Automatic annotation (TrEMBL):
<dbReference type="GO" id="GO:0005576">
    <property type="term" value="C:extracellular region"/>
</dbReference>
<keyword id="KW-0732">Signal</keyword>
<feature type="domain" description="Ig-like">
    <location>
        <begin position="4"/>
        <end position="102"/>
    </location>
</feature>
<dbReference type="InterPro" id="IPR050439">
    <property type="entry name" value="ADAMTS_ADAMTS-like"/>
</dbReference>
<dbReference type="GO" id="GO:0006508">
    <property type="term" value="P:proteolysis"/>
</dbReference>
<dbReference type="GO" id="GO:0030198">
    <property type="term" value="P:extracellular matrix organization"/>
</dbReference>
<dbReference type="Pfam" id="PF19030">
    <property type="entry name" value="TSP1_ADAMTS"/>
</dbReference>
<dbReference type="Pfam" id="PF07679">
    <property type="entry name" value="I-set"/>
</dbReference>
<dbReference type="InterPro" id="IPR007110">
    <property type="entry name" value="Ig-like_dom"/>
</dbReference>
<dbReference type="InterPro" id="IPR013098">
    <property type="entry name" value="Ig_I-set"/>
</dbReference>
<dbReference type="InterPro" id="IPR003598">
    <property type="entry name" value="Ig_sub2"/>
</dbReference>
<dbReference type="InterPro" id="IPR003599">
    <property type="entry name" value="Ig_sub"/>
</dbReference>
<feature type="domain" description="Ig-like">
    <location>
        <begin position="125"/>
        <end position="214"/>
    </location>
</feature>
<dbReference type="InterPro" id="IPR013783">
    <property type="entry name" value="Ig-like_fold"/>
</dbReference>
<keyword id="KW-0677">Repeat</keyword>
<dbReference type="InterPro" id="IPR036179">
    <property type="entry name" value="Ig-like_dom_sf"/>
</dbReference>
<dbReference type="GO" id="GO:0004222">
    <property type="term" value="F:metalloendopeptidase activity"/>
</dbReference>
């Protein structure tokens, strides 16, 4: 006698193929949908125990298939997942054991992928998108563009997704989004034409979906010929026109710049004799530059042959085709004009440097007959100056210097000589105020001279030294000074 005992198992049972599976209570059961699952709860004990079944701690009703400690869950679906408990009770106590039931759903394809729509809206209109499928889809992409490839699958538990390119893990530049459900390719030109596949796998099974990538190629296409370059004669040619195509659609030729152009040969066309026509030379130079002149040209009737030779023919042959061009015409009928000027005005302006004062005059355009006309009519002629620098009396001054005086010593360190510096008028040579010459540097009025060592180092007395100092400082001294060193 004692409280009940339950035969329990700690096994993990996974059923992916059988339509029926039986386990002892305490086991974990993973099974595919629509299978029949039986959970066995064998109880021992005296007195005999009463068995009660619970799902997620809620007592199961008698509607479930309960018989001799067995619980039958028929035609399992996702709603049957949960914890199933067997509770045995007698006078001495109770005991409970629990099994977990997980329903497996193998990966299966979905018709759409919401995450792909959201990512595509933020990527912009230049990004291609496609969903993989079990049978495989084809995506044709322009070079250099980006692409989003979605793997729309469902299953329980959620399948793990592995992306492959040509059967191998992807090593080139890419990015995974939405928990691996979206493969982002930044530049399809990193790849070549090939198969992308997503492998969706969980405990219930494996699903492979595919997508074939085709990268469009730019190519040159020879289009229709250009119009013939001549309607007759010997030079008519046509050139084939090249177009740059991308999947039969014409694009800018810059996309094909790295692709070798096909060799194109010009095709001759309209190589036949031309109808007779008037031929004219260039007009001769006008006989007059203004006031009405005449210019002439030569007019002949010729026919250009298919060999490129111009053959003279009678004027009647051309007259039947068109009117004879004129061979003489009037030219340069505009009146003859010239620039005329008024007298120069007064010379004005401060004298800061040479020729800085200015004077003005008026400029007019007139005909040879003396009629004033618009200046535009003289625009082809060199226009005279309307302003020029001039010389004023104030500017007509300079520094006048006299000759240097004799040196005050024949040797030593104190000999000097001087000269007179005056500001004088150039024309009258009369002195004026020195500030009139200030725009030029004032010449020096004294300088040292005969600075050579003396043979006798005679010392000077006080009076003679004073005389030397006076000379050195530029003062006029009439007394005799020693020729020795000062």
């Amino acid at each position: 006698a004692g409280k009940p005992l339950i035969k329990a198992s700690r096994a993990a049972v996974i059923n992916t193929e059988s339509s029926a599976v039986t386990v002892d209570i305490g086991s974990m059961v993973k099974t595919i949908q629509k299978a029949n699952v039986t959970i066995n709860c064998q109880v021992a004990g005296v007195p005999e125990a009463k068995v009660t079944w619970f799902k997620n701690k809620v007592k199961l009703s008698s509607a479930h298939h309960l018989h001799d400690g067995l619980l039958l869950i028929a035609n399992v679906s996702l709603s049957d997942q949960g914890l199933y408990s067997c509770k045995a009770v007698n006078l001495h106590g109770e005991v409970t054991e629990t099994s977990q039931l997980l329903v497996l759903e193998p990966p299966r394809p979905l018709p759409y992928l919401e995450d792909l729509t959201a990512v595509l809206s933020s990527a912009g209109p230049s990004t291609y998108s496609v969903l993989t499928s079990p049978s495989g889809k084809k995506l044709t992409v322009s070079p250099g563009r980006s692409a989003l490839i979605g793997c729309a699958v469902n299953g329980h538990p959620t399948p793990n997704i592995t992306w492959l390119y040509s059967g191998e893990p992807i090593s080139l530049r890419h990015h995974l989004l939405a928990a691996g459900q979206i493969l982002q390719i930044f530049n399809v030109s990193d790849f070549t034409d090939g198969e992308f596949s997503c492998l969706a796998q969980n405990e219930a099974g494996v699903l492979t979906q595919k997508m074939f990538l085709a990268i469009q190629e730019y190519r040159w296409s020879v289009n229709k010929l250009t119009a013939c370059s001549a309607s007759c004669g010997y030079r008519g040619v046509q050139l084939p026109q090249l177009r740059c195509l991308l999947d039969s659609a014409e694009v800018n030729t810059s996309y094909c710049r790295d692709i070798p152009k096909p060799s194109l040969q010009p095709i001759t066309c309209n190589r036949r004799d031309c109808p007779s026509r008037w031929m004219v030379t260039s007009w001769s130079v006008c006989t007059r530059s203004c006031g009405g002149g005449i210019q002439m040209r030569r007019v002949t009737c010729q026919r250009l042959t298919a060999k490129g030779i111009s053959v003279p023919v009678s004027s009647e042959a051309c007259a039947q085709v068109s009117k004879r061009p004129v061979d003489t015409q009037n030219c340069n009928r505009q009146p003859c004009v010239e620039w005329v000027t008024s007298s120069w005005g007064q010379c004005n302006g401060p004298c800061i440097g040479l020729r800085l004062a200015v004077q003005h005059r008026q400029i007019f355009c007139q005909t040879k007959g003396g009629t004033y006309v618009s200046s535009d009519q003289c625009s082809v002629l060199p226009r005279p100056l309307s302003t020029q620098n001039c010389w004023t009396d104030v500017c007509g001054v300079h520094w006048r210097v006299s000759l240097w005086t004799m040196c005050t010593a024949t040797c030593g360190n104190y000999g000097f000589q001087s000269r007179r510096v005056d500001c004088v008028h150039i024309r009258t040579n009369k002195p004026v105020m020195e500030h009139h010459c200030s725009w030029r540097p004032r010449p020096s009025n004294w300088q040292r001279c005969n600075i050579t060592p003396c043979e006798n180092g005679t010392l000077l007395r006080g009076g003679e030294a004073e005389q030397c100092r006076s000379r050195r400082e530029g003062r006029v001294v009439s007394q005799k000074c020693s020729t020795g060193p000062c």
